[in-house]
Known about the structure:
By secondary structure, the chain is an all-alpha fold. It has three helices and no strands. Helix 1 (3-17) runs antiparallel to helix 2 and helix 1 packs parallel to helix 3.
Amino acid sequence: MRPHIRLALELALALARLGRLIDALQIGSAAIDAATRDEQPAVGRWLDEHINDFARKNG
Length: 59
């Protein structure tokens, strides 16, 4: 996975943790859309590894 795709996914995660879900979804979706067919498996693994991070509630 190219570094900018990973950085965008990490930014989306940080925004989600701050409660900025719309921004997180926009950035995460753009990162997924920008990933090449060859990168899709790595993106999927990253999302699988971080799914609980996105679902975690603050407080």
